[in-house]
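Q: Please design a sequence for this.
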């Protein structure tokens, strides 16, 4: 019997659990090399659809016989035709990824990070296709969402499953690599929206100031303390949750550090970045568990499918935290910067509320991998 189509949720769960997965990606070569589905035990083969149309015999020989084959395309349409062609040629155990890369880019998978004071809980939402991480802090029937992405229904649904009300929505900085769902989520749930004031240039809506020393208390039980940590943007602010976790936004990742150039200000912000990473973060509790807003490589995902590491371990292992020479550090972050994310300027304007693109345009603006790290 033919296999059922694979959903992006099923694929995300397989990858996060470290299962072996075989993908046949039929997009154009350049699209595949720019951005493809990855994972610890993911193997993928790129054969563009046009090539398949010319005959499938060569491809057939490269496909495993003992594994399921999942065909991936941009939107989950041509992959269905490819499945039919390959089935007709005798390939078994083959099906397509529903919704293709578009759906993959939009899937969020909630993972529990740990328990908090007074029965609270902390969840990480992994947007595995794009490397974005967002968070929900739950305590006594209330929830706070940090760095929400555009797919806000996931948070609303998760909160209702948990029987909690979203009361607070916070952003660590003005995002440039993905569209923030923060303001919309706050509006739709009647939650208070918190934002770092030093990033508010051009912002078209009101917000509550999340500046150094400000604090939000979830369910009268769990504190989120703001800790000013500029360098990725001038307002970038970290959040210390329950005195245990350090939400670093895009300043510090597990295997890299944030880039300071997304507003074209690499030269101006590099000193701030250095000060945050080499001084400010040295002066907080080193046992804090770092929860970044992104991951760049699949290796940053732990065995259990979550992304986090103790601050002190990062000072040992992350080589970008160990560049003693200031000039060398400057070169490291301003030379050879990775290409700017697609549409980053449009994304910033959208996040400021200056632009209001429709859903399709938003989707299009976010196509591709995240490039927040150096
Ligand atoms: Fe960012």
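A: Design:
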């Amino acid at each position: 019997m033919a296999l059922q189509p694979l959903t992006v949720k099923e694929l995300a769960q397989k990858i996060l659990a470290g299962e072996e997965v075989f993908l046949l990606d039929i997009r154009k070569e350049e699209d595949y090399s720019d951005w493809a589905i990855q994972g610890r035990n993911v193997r993928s083969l790129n054969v563009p659809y046009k090539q398949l149309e010319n005959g499938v015999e060569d491809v057939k020989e490269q496909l495993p016989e003992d594994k399921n084959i999942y065909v991936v395309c941009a939107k989950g349409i041509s992959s269905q035709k490819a499945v039919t062609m390959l089935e007709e040629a005798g390939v078994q155990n083959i099906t397509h990824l529903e919704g293709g890369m578009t759906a993959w880019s939009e899937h969020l998978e909630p993972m529990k990070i740990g328990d908090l004071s007074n029965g609270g809980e902390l969840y990480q939402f992994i947007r595995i296709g794009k490397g974005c991480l967002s968070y929900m802090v739950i305590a006594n029937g209330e929830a706070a969402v940090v760095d929400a992405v555009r797919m806000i229904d996931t948070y609303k649904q998760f909160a209702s499953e948990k029987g909690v009300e979203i009361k607070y929505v916070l952003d660590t900085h003005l995002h440039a690599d993905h569209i923030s769902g923060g303001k919309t989520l706050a509006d739709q749930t009647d939650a208070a929206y918190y934002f770092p004031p030093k990033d508010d240039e051009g912002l078209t809506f009101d917000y509550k100031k999340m500046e150094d020393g400000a604090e939000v208390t979830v369910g009268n039980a769990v504190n989120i303390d703001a800790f000013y940590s500029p360098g990725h943007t001038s307002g970038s602010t970290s959040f210390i949750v329950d005195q245990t976790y350090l939400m670093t936004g895009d300043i510090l990742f597990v295997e890299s550090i944030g880039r300071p150039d997304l507003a074209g200000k690499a030269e101006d912000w590099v000193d701030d970045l250095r000060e945050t990473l080499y001084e400010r973060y040295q002066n907080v509790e080193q046992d804090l568990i770092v929860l970044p807003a992104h991951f760049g490589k699949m290796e940053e995902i732990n065995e259990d499918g979550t992304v986090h590491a103790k601050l002190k371990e990062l000072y040992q292992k992350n080589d970008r935290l160990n560049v003693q020479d200031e000039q060398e550090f400057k070169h490291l972050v301003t030379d050879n910067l990775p290409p700017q994310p697609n549409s980053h300027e449009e994304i910033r304007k959208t996040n400021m509320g200056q632009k209001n693109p429709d859903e399709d345009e938003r989707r299009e603006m976010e196509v591709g991998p995240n490039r927040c790290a150096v």
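Q: Thanks. Anything notable?
A: Residues 173, 175-177, 232, 250, 372 surround fe (ii) ion (CB under 6 Å). The chain has two domains: 8-103, 108-365.
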